[in-house]
Records
---
Amino acid sequence: MKKSSLYKMKNMGVDLALKKVWLDADRRYCCRHSSRNFKKEFPGPLLYILFYRACNATNPYTFRKAMERLRKEGKATVMKWFADLGKQSKWTKNKFNTTLCSDINTSNFVESFNSTLGIDRCKPILSLLEGIRRVCMIAQMVKDIGKATKFCECHMLAPGEFEIHEGKSQFPISLNQRKYGFRA
């Protein structure tokens, strides 16, 4: 890759970088997001249930049965919606690439990850990576604090008033007065 194109890419968002660098990456559609779009056009619980049966089918027989039922209940308009959705390998487990070690068809992890990144996810790739580094540092600090306090016991004395016991030591904490330790 040329130096100038690498410079341009570092100023792009992740989505554009993925399209330029990993053109052939096997990406799937989030079933949950697709179902929202489906439900807007085809309200009602039956078609919604059948949508999920088709998306989560893991073998050709189950997939075929779900699609036949969708065709019967939703007619040609539902089948056109699925055709417009794109390749089946993008949205149904039945057609997913078996060489990949995952059959996930939701982006719940990605959604959680994006919400953790906050505003950093809209920044250029290098700024995004810096944001990820900061989040990882904070997560490590919380983990270390959790390990250090695993032998502590917390006792509520009154609403907003607590006492922390660690071995023979006791530390009062007043959330009401915003005081802790020896100053409480």
Note: Confidence is low (pLDDT under 50) at residues 6-11.
---
Amino acid sequence: MTRAKICGITTIEDGRTAARHGADAIGLVFYPPSPRLVSVTQAAEIAAALPPFVTTVGLFVNPQAGEVEAVLRELRLDMLQFHGDETPEFCASFGVPWLKAVRVKPRVDLVQCAIRYRDARGLLLDAFVAGTPGGTGLSFDWGLIPAELPLPVILSGGLDPANVRTAIEQVKPWAVDVSSGVEASKGIKDAAKIAAFMRGVHSANV
């Protein structure tokens, strides 16, 4: 079964809604320019309200080590997700499992990315948009993904209830990741869209 993460959760209710409809993980954004930014206090309240077996993932973009450490002092995250130019050594330095996001465009060698970030739990593949590290709501050419990568693939970028089943059946990723595709407005999720998205995930024939 393909796993699913609902990213950019900003309220307790949205976190509970994601879990109720079967999301395996939620994403909490610690990137100040993002409209989905949460404070450490907000994030801790959301995490504390989740039922068992829902993974909490903290998203960072080119942070200073102290920024990540400050979050981890206040909040036990299950996983870190790095969306910038972080080195493998930096990503691994916090003693927490991590994902590396890669913005996909022609001539990006995903096999080499997977080799370089071999200690990651997976590669999160997102659309490349100049100057924007993620959350654009745009998809990329899934044909650019090699059939075999040495790390699990988390497919992101432009996914929504209408296309997630097709995406899973074509790419066969370990997991899918959605943010803007299930929103009512930036940072606020739509419960009906989350439900429809998760139905698409669970109905995929893989």
Note: The chain has a mean pLDDT of 94.
---
Amino acid sequence: MTTDNSASVGRRVLVVDDDFTVRDVVRRYLELAGHQVVLAGTGEEALASFAEQPADLVVLDLMLPGIDGLEVCRRLRDRSAVPVVMLTALGEEENRIAGLQLGADDYVTKPFSPRELALRVSSVLRRAMATPPAPAKASIVDGDLTVDPVARKVVLRGAELSLTGREFDLLQFFLDNQGTAFTRAELLERVWGWDFGDQSTVTVHVRRLREKIEAVPAKPVRIATVWGVGYRYDRQGSS
């Protein structure tokens, strides 16, 4: 399938890192990719810059002086659904998972390839900026769960759920393919649109979805784990 790159070109990207060299290298590669780049060295600067003129995507280092990256991500999520690509060090798995749980879209581990980061940014932007085709079907109903693809709204037992854009995409994909098992690599490609990346991103998003749609997240009945494969969505019917 051919991918249109035009949606991701010329977008405003806010790069937040306290290391001048990292900021400068990332800026150069992103500008080569056609993006407009704004730099910030602290969490305070990043939040002020975003408040003055929102970015289309934020590249965010987790280890920042003052307000750290996790808090910046949390505050951004309170006001916007802007895509966030985190920069993390090798030993920061706990913080990386926390960032994904806050709604970050992807992460790149330091030391990283600037070219790979630019590709990740373009991939996330392309998906975020793409205009989805008009859905050919009405809301998807599975028992007490209703998903409206047009309004991008999810209602469970009469209450509307708060899902990130990626969580919604993942849930809709599962509902569109009920009963079919997918590997994490397949989900990464078909939901995220990436043919590379850390599959733990999928694991974290599945966990978050279970916490929101399962009665007992530790014993899921909708999003089943298929051992040795990945995940499968099991329809609950009208009960």
Note: The CA atoms of residues 224 and 232 lie 5 Å apart.
